[in-house]
Task: structure prediction
Amino acid sequence: FWRASRPRTCNTLLQKQAISLSEFMWKPSPLCRKNTLAEPCERCNLPCQRARDPPCSHPCPSRCHLSDCLPCKALVKRSCHCGAMTHAFECVYYNNLNAKQQLKVRSCGGPCHRKLPNCPHLCSEICHPGQCPSVDQCMKKVNVRCACNTLKKEWVCQDVLKEYRRSGRDPKVAKGQFGVGLIACGGDCVKKVNVPAAELHQRKVQENKNPAAEVTNVPKRRKKRDRGAQEPVQVSMWQQMKRYLVVIIALAGLVVLGLLIWKGVYQISDWMNEMEEQKARERLLRAGRL
Result:
């Protein structure tokens, strides 16, 4: 029998007082059918709230039910150990694995390619969890130089790290400075450093002896012309005569043009007077006929 406020298999509470349940979909038992005075059993339509087995964070998608929950088919995303790719597993498959198996299936199967913490090289192991096993066992070749970069030798990377620890220096340096200064300078280094110093000293001595010496073979700069000053222009007699002739011709042309205009205006005035006289005569003739 189910009583009021008692949790069902889905962990929800019933609000009514029920009598008996025996089958899925909350069908009443024969005892419930015979008792006609009993209040009908309440049916739960809420989503299932039972904890999953194996445990996961995804809720059951079904409504309240008596049978076991279906396996969780939700996708769980997990990145590989080196971060190169992301896996998608079914929740029920991934949660049924133990911790060791989960770490194994998360490996992408490719090279780790994570940067090693104490040297400029990358891990050459297959994608793996935790710290790279080749941190102190890197077998890559490294060029080791003296402090002035004159001498150069080829060492194994793990030997370089050991030398850094032995000398008490930090191996975490820039990629271009890794291995520099681990071997001592030789005689060639001293000669290389002393030659520029001797040349500089000799040059200073020569400058002190001839402080006022001028630099030879230097091209002199040309003086710039004064753009504002204008050179005088010589005008010939023929050019002056041409100018006067042009002025005279222009004046004569203006005089002729004025005469033509005056004559034209005079002719127009005479024509207008003739037209007025002709109109006056026509008016007189019309008046005489009337």
In short: Residues 237-289 form the longest helix (53 residues). Residues 1-6, 14-29 have pLDDT under 50 and may be disordered. The CA atoms of residues 82 and 217 lie 67 Å apart.
